[in-house]
Amino acid sequence: MNRKHKTFLSRTGIWLLRLRVMTVKELLQLSRDFILIFFVVYAFTLDIYSAGAGVTLQLNKAAMVFHDNDRSFASRELIGRFQEPHFSNKGEISHPSEGVRLLDRDRAMIVLDIPPRFQECLLMGEPANVQFQVDATNSVLGFLAASYGERIVGEFGMEAGLKRLGMSTGNVAAPMIKDDHRVWFNPNQNDAWFMSITELLNIITVFSILLPAAAMVREKERGTIEQLLVSPLTPFQIMVPKMLAMTLVILAGTAVSLFAVMEPLFHVPIKGSVLLFFGVTTLYILNTAGLGLFAATIARNLAQVGMLTVLIVAPMIFLSGAWTPPEAMAPWMRLFMYISPLHYYIDSCLGILLKGAGLEILWDSVLIMVLLGGAVFGVGMWRFRRQFE
What HEC string does 33-81 produce? Predict the structure, then answer.
């Protein structure tokens, strides 16, 4: 082995030793920050559980009252079809104005008003109308309630028409279109799967920005950043250990959320490769940490870091496509969504965990995520070096 090789190996060994020592230093400093540790533990456990157990996008026991002006067998049968778990019958009201008051006071979500001669109109083949008032303050639940109510009333009207003609719903001679829905990957439409996974990915995004920025600003507050700059360490050797240490912390929290909260409590399936999931997550954390380093060059204390993290993360979450489908966004907002690494990260992780997709399917999302994240990381590195050179 010649002298050049020995020199190269010696410098590489020193570089790796510095990297290990600085990474351990960052982990020790984080372990002494009990408030931040508590925040990390809470976010990866109780927050994930709250998102999976407490948030639902399904209609569940919507409070309904009815005003029956017909009091016939047909009206009672129609009212009886609004059953749990989607609806909760809260009883009859004496006047339509009472239903409006209940809607205004948030005591009821639905008011079903059945007119006189309802059954008579059905038996004679005349149009029979019912009034279905829905509180759509929550537009998602209001749309679901109106859709379910329309379906129930439509099926009831179809059955009444067939009975009047002496036919039944099972009669093959009756012309009928049957709409069967088959749901892939989440057959029971369990909201806890989607909500817990989405919340985990959002938490990863928050901490991949917050923790590296907090580690850097902590050096500023304590006045140790100048000591590091006059040491033999380069700006790259100062910055990378902070990112590696916080990446290890986030990956550990992700493992706890995945295997101690989501899988045993919500039975979230892990259909794809766990190694691929953690590999993509590692790439995402390292790339997104550039935003945290950029924020650290602007902020002067931890409070400012927290506010800047919210300012950065909130648009990323809203424009990720997790809460609002891309098709429902304005065209100019969709352009911002396509330049957000979180959008591609969510697509990749949902594909791995729920669909069992591999890298041969998700390679384009992972590649775009890495390219966008690499650009962000480069800007953060450039800003950091420019500040301390």
Answer: CHHHHHHHHHHHCHHHHHHHHHCCCCCCCEEEEEEECCCCHHHHHHHHC
Q: How far apart are CA 93 and CA 111, in angstroms?
A: 9
Q: Distance from first CA to last CA of the chain, Å, rounded?
A: 37
Where is 90: in which H helix or E strand?
Answer: strand 87-92
pTM, full prediction: 0.77
The residue among 12, 384, 41 whose CA lies nearest residue 215 is: 384
Nearest-angstrom CA–CA distance, 311 and 214: 15
Query: pLDDT for 180-193, tens place per residue?
Result: 777 788 777 777 88
Give Cβ neighbours of residue 273 (< 8 Å, ≥ 6 apart): 352, 358
CB 131 within 8 A of CB 112: yes
> Other CB atoms closer than 10 Å to residue 233's CB: what's the count?
17
- List of domains in the chain: 3-54+189-388 (no CATH), 62-164 (3.40.1710.10)
Amino acid 124 reads: M
User: Any bridge partners for residue 342, and if so which?
Assistant: none
Lowest-pLDDT range, 56-70, 128-142, 225-239? 225-239
pLDDT value at residue 3? 62
Q: For 61, left (φ over 0), alpha (ψ -120 to 50), or beta? A: left
Q: Which has the closest alpha carbon to 290: 381, 163, 372, 181? A: 381
